[in-house]
Amino acid sequence: MNDSSWGTPQTGYWGPSDHGQDWGAAPAGPAYDAHNAQHTRPMPIVPDVPEHGGDQDADRGAARLSGPLFRDEPTRARPLPGEVPQNPEPMSDAPQPAPAPQKKSAGRDLGAAIGVGVGLGVVIVASLFVVKAVFVGVVAVAVVVGLWELTSRLRERKGIKAPLVPLALGGAAMVAAGYARGAEGAWVAMALTTLAVLVWRMTAPPEGYLKDVTAGVFAAFYVPFLATFVAMMLTADDGPWRVLTFLLLTVVSDTGAYAVGWRFGRTKLAPRISPGKTREGLLGAVAFAMAAGALCMQFLIDDGIWWQGLLLGLAVAASATLGDLGESMIKRDLGIKDMGTLLPGHGGIMDRLDSLLPTAPVVWLLLVLFVGSG
């Protein structure tokens, strides 16, 4: 500790000395005691720094202001007398008002989302129970639009030019083949679509050929091939009810996850992929889907049993969640929020098919195991 920080330094004084007053020792008396200087700590007073010059300053240095008083310390509540505060802050004893609580937002235009959802539901149900072929056409149109959205985003964001024409034609044919010839027809159409993608891309320069055809094959499997399982469900005697069960369970799972997650969600499910999804929302999806599955299997599916519906609902909640996370991964890689803007409140067609596509083969398989292909 530098003692020159305490008390008022005198001209020519450089600390206690054995030579007394001749060498500038501190004057004796009650005002200063050289022997007690290390023990007495009066309130520091900022002195006027005496001017020194010549060799004396060069050898020993002028009296400096030092010590803890002049170090970088937290800002004092009030400045010392005569001190100019640095970066003064407003000092008020009045209590600061608490920030107004923010209302939790649902994150989407619910009015538009509900309106579009009801409209799509009417079209789907009407086509499903009137003429089966019309519903197959609706599925084919959704597949073509979904392929257009996916390939457009790949081209815009990554420069990947997956050929849309063979994908669209092959995708529509794939859905029709699945309805007419079952799984065998779907696989044959998938193989032919892949071949068409490989050949179509040969008409362009070879640069980027591998990534373009790889993206094309992925798009063919991801959108139309998975959609063929919906068409295959429709071929059963109670086909419309199977498709309706598939749609209801997927929508109920998504609704349960959304409602419970929005209201009670606290723990993130996969924050690096989809920050909005929570574990509480997943539990809501499972509970809602299992309840709906038990009801659907008991009252809509021929020879169905309620406990089979519980298993079906659990599987749907898992596949729908994984499908949603899968497309979220794709969109995060592309750096986009939605795949399109065709459906107000929902985004694009692919933003609605994300959970339906991977769920279709799961529901088709479980229904075949539980009640047969009928």
TrEMBL record:
Instruction: Please list the residue ranges that the record marks as compositionally biased, kind Basic and acidic residues.
Output: 49-62
Its signal peptide is none
Q: Does the keyword Isomerase apply?
A: no
Q: How does it sit in the membrane?
A: Multi-pass membrane protein
A cellular-component GO term for this protein: plasma membrane
Which EC number(s) does the record attach to this protein? 2.7.7.41
Pathway(s) this gene product operates in, as recorded in its UniProt entry = Phospholipid metabolism; CDP-diacylglycerol biosynthesis; CDP-diacylglycerol from sn-glycerol 3-phosphate: step 3/3; Lipid metabolism
Q: Where is the composition biased (Polar residues)?
A: 1-11
| Superkingdom classification of source | Bacteria
Q: Where are the transmembrane segments?
A: 110-128, 134-150, 162-180, 186-203, 215-235, 241-260, 281-300, 306-325
Chief place of localization: membrane
Q: Which GO terms describe its biological process?
A: CDP-diacylglycerol biosynthetic process
One of the record's GO molecular function terms: phosphatidate cytidylyltransferase activity
Keyword check for S-adenosyl-L-methionine: no
InterPro entries under this entry?
Answer: PC_trans
This enzyme catalyses: a 1,2-diacyl-sn-glycero-3-phosphate + CTP + H(+) = a CDP-1,2-diacyl-sn-glycerol + diphosphate
**Which PROSITE patterns does this entry report, sorted A to Z?**
CDS
Keywords of the record: Cell membrane, Lipid biosynthesis, Lipid metabolism, Membrane, Nucleotidyltransferase, Phospholipid biosynthesis, Phospholipid metabolism, Transferase, Transmembrane, Transmembrane helix
Q: Which family does it belong to?
A: Belongs to the CDS family.
- The protein depicted here goes by the name Phosphatidate cytidylyltransferase
Query: What taxonomic classification does the UniProt entry list for its organism?
Result: Bacteria, Bacillati, Actinomycetota, Actinomycetes, Kitasatosporales
